[in-house]
């Protein structure tokens, strides 16, 4: 089994020693593990950028992991499938009746039907001919998509989108689905966009759940994991928090992973920071993001809302490596079977047109995106088939990243809390890529 050489550790330390002196470097954690245990971890900066009194960032620091939540939600669904409590063939409408009525947005690019200048007065659509299934949600071939058309010229303000909208007390899942139909044209609404939306004929929402294409015919990054999480809740009769706590978090000792900002988690929460466009320096970001009040957090979005410490997430990645290598400790039960991990999480699931779509979307994020070797499985992660070595890769809106490489037997996590988000801050991607490269160059048998 591989380990990190002394020279490799020294190289990583020297690199971080250098970048942490740069005021344009945000607080972050980088850590790596094999199935045997942690091989490297290092935090730099403070929980509140520039504030030594807030405490140093370390492996127990907690981050909004955003889309890194997807892996955990998909693991929960795979558990239910293994137990026979959920089927890939199940129609989504079996659990969420709103999905009986699906519509295909007839635009050249449905993700871009809103711009920074206007909200459409109407949208052309047609009824979908295909029933959406649980399998479509898991492989992101459902047609559900994140709107991306509303350009954001200033990230130093409240985030206003479907994820940050108030939750429906009587029907949290149904309220979230309604938000997709009403607010779903804009990834980040400005005040004038909000006014235009309310004056448009779309103010009451589309007549069905909007899709980018017929389910099963392509790939799109979007709400699939959130809807999958609601399906898990309906199938189990539990909240996603309760199910994950009993079946994933507690068994693995993930004590600082939750949808809720409890005091135990809040004491180690890293504050968000914002890179000023004029000088590239980070400052605290103090605006509205996800709901922080546990009493108001009702729709538990499995594609975005989880908080987790770097230690906890690294524990999960190590567990998956142990399942793959048949090296689980005797007292630890696998969260999913080795066969499911190999066949579903690490196995490509997309047809050629779906693969082309994911490669286009991830061209600026995954280093091998231009090699014709980006795929997607059932695990809520991209499969980078021609990177340092074939591995699964996940990322979050606030620039968090992780990968798991079962062939080499190593996994790593890069946790940060910054805006602008992923792909809009190339310096963050270069930092993570440099750390990943140093890690691989330092691995020895």
Overview features:
12 helices, three-stranded antiparallel beta sheet, single chain, seven-stranded antiparallel beta sheet, 445 residues, globular, alpha+beta
Query: In DSSP terms, counting alpha (H) and pi (I) runs of 4 or more, how many helices?
Result: 12
Quickly give the structural class: alpha+beta
- Give the strand tally: 18
Shape: globular
User: Radius of gyration in whole Å, from Cα?
Assistant: 21 Å
Fraction of residues in H or I helices: 25-40%
Question: Largest sheet at a glance?
Answer: 7 strands, antiparallel
Poorly predicted sequence stretches spanning 5 or more consecutive residues:
113-119, 187-201
Q: What is the rounded distance between the termini?
A: 6 Å
**Strands of the biggest beta sheet: in what spatial order?**
3-2-16-15-14-13-12
State mean pLDDT (0 to 100 scale).
Answer: 90
């Amino acid at each position: 089994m591989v380990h990190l050489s002394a020279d490799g550790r020294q190289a990583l330390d020297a690199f971080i020693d250098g970048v942490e002196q740069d005021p344009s470097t945000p607080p972050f954690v980088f850590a790596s593990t094999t199935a045997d245990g942690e091989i490297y971890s290092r935090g730099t900066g403070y929980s509140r950028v520039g504030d030594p009194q807030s405490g140093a960032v370390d492996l127990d620091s907690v981050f909004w992991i955003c889309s890194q939540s997807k892996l955990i939600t998909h693991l929960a669904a795979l558990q239910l499938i293994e137990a026979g409590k959920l089927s890939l063939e199940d129609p989504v409408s079996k659990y969420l009746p709103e999905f009986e009525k699906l519509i295909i947005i007839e635009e050249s690019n449905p993700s871009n039907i809103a711009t920074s200048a206007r909200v459409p007065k109407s949208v052309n659509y047609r009824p979908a001919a295909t029933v959406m299934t649980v399998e479509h949600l898991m492989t992101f071939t459902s047609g559900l998509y994140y709107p991306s058309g509303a350009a954001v010229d200033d990230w130093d303000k409240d985030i206003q989108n479907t994820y940050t909208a108030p939750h429906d007390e009587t029907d949290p899942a149904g309220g979230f689905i309604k938000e997709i139909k009403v607010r779903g044209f804009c990834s980040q609404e400005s005040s004038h966009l909000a006014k235009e939306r309310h004056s448009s004929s779309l103010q009451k929402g589309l007549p069905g759940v909007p899709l980018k294409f017929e389910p099963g015919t392509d790939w799109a990054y979007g709400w699939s994991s959130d809807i999958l999480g609601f399906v898990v809740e309906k199938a189990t009769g539990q909240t996603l928090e309760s199910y994950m706590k009993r079946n994933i978090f507690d068994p693995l000792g993930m004590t600082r992973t939750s949808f809720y900002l409890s005091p135990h988690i809040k004491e180690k929460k890293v504050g968000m920071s914002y890179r000023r466009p004029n000088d590239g320096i980070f400052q605290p970001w103090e605006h509205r993001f996800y709901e922080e009040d546990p009493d108001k957090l009702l729709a538990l979005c499995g594609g975005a809302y989880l908080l987790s410490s770097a230690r906890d997430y690294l524990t999960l990645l190590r567990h998956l490596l142990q399942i793959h290598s048949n090296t689980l400790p005797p007292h630890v039960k696998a969260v999913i079977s080795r066969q499911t991990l190999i066949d579903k999480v690490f196995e490509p699931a997309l047809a050629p047109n779906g693969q082309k779509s994911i490669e286009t979307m991830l061209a600026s994020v995954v280093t091998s995106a231009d090699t014709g070797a980006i795929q997607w499985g059932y695990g809520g992660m991209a499969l980078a088939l021609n990177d340092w070595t074939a591995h699964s890769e996940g990322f979050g809106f606030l620039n968090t990243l992780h990968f798991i490489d079962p062939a080499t037997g190593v996994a790593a996590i890069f946790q940060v809390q910054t805006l602008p988000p992923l792909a809009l801050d190339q310096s963050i991607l270069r930092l993570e890529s440099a750390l990943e490269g140093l890690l691989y160059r330092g691995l020895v048998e």
